[in-house]
Structures are given as C-alpha cells and as structure tokens.
C-alpha cells in the first residue's frame, strides 16, 4: 500500500492556503498554482518510484517454544531482503492475546543477510498468544510517500508458568534454610525415621539404646533418627473468579501457581510426594501425590492447564471432593483469597472439616495497596474514605486468620513477592515438628 506521508499532506495544505491567498490578492497568479500542483504531483510520483519495493520482502518468526507469564521474552523477526540497503520507517507486530502492547521499532536499515530484529513480548495471562503478522513501512528519499506491507506470520505461542522465577525462588529458599532431609546429617535426631547407629556417650537418651545391636557388638550403641521422608503434600489451588483479579501485574491465580510450584520443587527435593488439585465451583485438575525425577515436570504441566474461571468458588464441593480422594493424612496447602468475614464463612466451615484429618496451611495473597492507602497522607475526603475502607478490609483479614490459627491451621498472608519464602518457612517448620 502506497500513500502520502503527513509531510506531503502538510506541504499540499500549505500550498492550498498560499494559492487562496494569492488568488485573493491577484487573480492573475492562478497559473503559478497550477504549476505547483503539477510539480508536487511529479515529486510524489518520483518519491513513490524511489521508495523501497517492499513486495520482495519476506518475514519469518523465530520464537521460543513457549512464553513465560509475566516475563519479557524476545521474539526475532528475520527479514529476507534482496537488493541495495533500504531504510524502514516503522516495524510493528500484530498480536492477539492478553499481553503488554509490543514495542514498535523505528529507523531500521534493511540489508541482505542482516541480523534478525528482536522484539520483546510480555504475556499477562497463561494460555496462548498469537503473532498474526508483522507490519513494515518505508518512505521514499523525499519523505513524501510511504509504502506499507503486512507480512503474515500466523504463529501461536503457548504461555506457561514462569519456571525460571520458580527455580530462582526455590534456590533462594534452599540456600536460606535447607529443607529437612536434603542434608540428612544436619537433621539427625529431629525425626522418627531410623538413620544410623552410633556409640553411646554420656548425655544421650537411654531410651535410644539399641540393646540387640549392643549385645551383638559388646558395646553400647544408640539409634539416630532423621526427619521422615515420603510424606504427602497436596497443593490445592483456588481458580475461582476472585483469583482471576490482577495483583502486582499478574492474576492472583498465577501468583498462587508460582508459589505452589516453588513448594513442590522443595518438597520433591527432600523426598516427599507432591500432588496438585485446582477447583472453582467443583474440582477441576487432579494429580495424585507423585515423586521421582519427572514429578516436577508433571506438576508444572498440570499447573499450566489450570484455567481462569468466571465461576464463584464452591469450597464445599472442591474441598470435600479433595478429602474423599485423599484418604492418607497429608499436608494440604490451600492457596486462595477472600474479601471479608461474610464471604469467608463458608470457606472457614469447610477448612475446619478438612483440618480434622489433614494438616492444613492456608495461603492468602495480601494486596500491598491496602496498607499503602491507609498510610498515605490524605489530600481530600475521598482519600479518607479509601483509607477507612482499606483498614476495615485489613481488620477483616486479621480476624479470619486468627480464627484459622485457633483451629490449628497454619496461615501465610504475604505479598506476591514474599509468599513463596514464607510458605517454604512454614513447610519446613511443620516438617521438623512432624506435624503431618
């Protein structure tokens, strides 16, 4: 498509204004206006003729096999060009999906065998992003005419959880506090699983003496224990309507999935079995507790299939179905959120019922804006009203969390940046106490 540039429109408009002015002052100068029109038309034709012929341009997309939600990743557009170097005025991607608007590139130089052009894409939800086409525009040497062309790409890129972020947070948690069982020798005596025998020395608990082994070897030997492995951890992710609301740039559901995968990584590393379920108005995804080399990849694949649901969360159907399928006592980590004490009543009732058989960890995502609104100095009455509402919501959260703690349910209420670290700390504390 060839069309005049804004510069050409401005020059022609200035010429029309000048022609009207001269015709008003001296009607005999109309011939100069006619000459200007012909000369300007000739310049337009010459500029269009000298503009780069984009019909010979070819494009090919080079992209990773999958994108990571919330992370900027570069996709490369390889432009096949034959001929003398030419300058592009603009290059932009035509994309479909929930992602940040892709950046446009200006002032590119086309050359045969030149490097691919890289453009960042930042998806904001899991699912799929479609890179439909790339638009290019070039101007003639006079800047009066431009040519644009749409080159079809038709690439579909799946968007998965950000496993690189999960890995970084898991490594940070491991270096800060090594999980029980990862280095067994550092946690001897803390658990109930037999580890080794060692010679008795004064000060050891006499109840740990192994009399049969002592009689066999004719010296006193004591049993040493370690934190038990092969425990079961079940990650229950709420995928209801409230969890689809954005928080710190991503839906709450994606923050919950990232925190769940961090815990899964650490739990599998220490020898526990990890399962994953998701629910909204009913149980959706379900994976029985697994372990082994491919367990984390299996859990990550299931987590990537947890869809955003417009349905209200039904804790009765979701958690009771989980209790029916999970007969063995386990650590059940419920990742959800609530608004106030009224909407949390049914959730509290079902969590109470589930806690009679399993050890529960309740994980909620705190909005940092609530505290910021209350601490900000008000400039008008609307700021005062916002602060009052924010403080009321925070008091309701504290009330619900205290009720859960009185029921013996461990609670984690943290911002998205801190929730993974606090969840790992709570898991390690419960594991050392052998609470599940």
What is this structure, in a nutshell?
By secondary structure, the protein is an alpha/beta fold.
Alpha carbon gap, first and last residue: 68 Å
Total DSSP helices: 11
Compute the average pLDDT: 85
Beta-strand proportion: 25-35%
How would you explain this protein's 3D organization?
With 436 residues, this protein is α/β, with parallel strands linked by helices. It has three domains: 105 residues, Immunoglobulin-like (Sandwich); 225 residues, 3-Layer(aba) Sandwich (Rossmann fold); 35 residues, no CATH class. The strands form five sheets. Strands 1, 3, 5, 6, 8 and 9 form a six-stranded mixed β-sheet that branches. The chain has a six-stranded mixed β-sheet with strand order 16-15-12-17-18-19, sandwiched between helices. It is elongated and about 125 Å long.
What is the fold's blueprint, element by element?
Blueprint: E1 2-4, H1 6-25, H2 30-50, E2 58-62, E3 67-68, E4 73-80, E5 86-96, E6 105-110, E7 117-121, E8 127-139, E9 145-160, H3 163-176, E10 193-199, H4 211-217, E11 221-226, E12 232-238, E13 246-247, E14 250-251, H5 252-269, E15 273-279, E16 283-290, H6 295-304, H7 315-325, E17 331-336, H8 345-355, E18 359-365, H9 368-375, H10 381-406, E19 410-414, H11 419-432
Parallel strand pairs: 3-9, 12-15, 12-17, 17-18, 18-19
Antiparallel strand pairs: 1-9, 2-4, 4-7, 5-6, 5-8, 8-9, 10-11, 13-14, 15-16
Helix pairs in contact: 1-2, 3-5, 3-11, 5-6, 5-11, 7-8, 9-10
């Amino acid at each position: 498509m060839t069309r005049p540039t804004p510069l050409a429109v401005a020059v022609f408009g200035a010429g029309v204004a000048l022609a009207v002015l001269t015709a008003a002052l001296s009607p005999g100068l109309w011939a100069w206006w006619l000459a200007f029109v012909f000369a300007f038309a000739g310049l337009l034709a010459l500029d269009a003729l000298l503009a780069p012929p984009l019909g010979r341009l070819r494009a090919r997309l080079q992209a990773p096999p999958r994108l990571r939600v919330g992370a900027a990743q570069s996709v490369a557009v390889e432009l096949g060009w034959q001929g003398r170097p030419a300058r592009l005025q603009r290059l932009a991607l035509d994309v479909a999906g929930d992602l940040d608007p892709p950046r446009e590139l200006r002032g590119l130089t086309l050359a045969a065998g030149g490097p691919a052009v890289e453009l960042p894409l930042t998806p904001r939800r899991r699912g799929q992003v479609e890179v439909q086409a790339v638009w290019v525009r070039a101007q003639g040497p006079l800047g009066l005419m431009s040519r644009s062309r749409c080159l079809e790409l038709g690439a579909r890129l799946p968007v998965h959880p950000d496993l690189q972020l999960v890995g970084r947070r898991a490594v940070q948690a491991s270096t800060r506090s090594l999980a029980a069982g990862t280095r067994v020798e550092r946690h001897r005596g803390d658990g109930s699983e037999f580890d080794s025998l060692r010679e008795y020395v004064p000060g050891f608990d006499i109840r740990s003496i192994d009399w049969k082994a002592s009689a066999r070897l004719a010296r006193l030997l004591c049993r040493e224990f370690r934190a038990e492995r092969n425990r079961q951890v079940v990650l229950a992710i709420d995928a209801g309507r409230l969890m689809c609301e954005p928080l710190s740039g991503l839906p709450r559901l994606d923050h919950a999935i990232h925190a769940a995968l961090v815990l899964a990584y650490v739990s599998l590393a220490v020898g526990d079995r990890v399962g994953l379920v998701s629910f909204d108005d009913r149980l959706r995804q379900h994976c029985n507790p697994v372990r082994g080399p491919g367990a984390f990849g299996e859990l990550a694949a299931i987590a990537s299939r947890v869809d955003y649901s417009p349905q209200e969360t039904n804790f009765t159907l979701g958690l009771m179905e989980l209790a029916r399928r999970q007969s063995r006592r386990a650590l059940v980590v419920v990742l959800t959120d609530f608004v106030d004490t009224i909407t949390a009543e049914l959730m509290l009732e079902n969590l109470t019922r589930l806690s009679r058989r399993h050890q529960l960890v309740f994980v909620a995502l705190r909005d940092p804006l609530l505290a910021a609104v209350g601490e900000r100095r008000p400039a008008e009455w609307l700021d005062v009203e916002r602060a009052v509402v924010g403080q009321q919501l925070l008091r309701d959260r504290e009330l619900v969390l205290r009720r859960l703690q009185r029921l013996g349910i461990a609670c984690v209420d943290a911002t998205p940046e801190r929730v993974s670290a606090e969840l790992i700390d709570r898991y390690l504390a419960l594991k050392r106490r052998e609470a599940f």
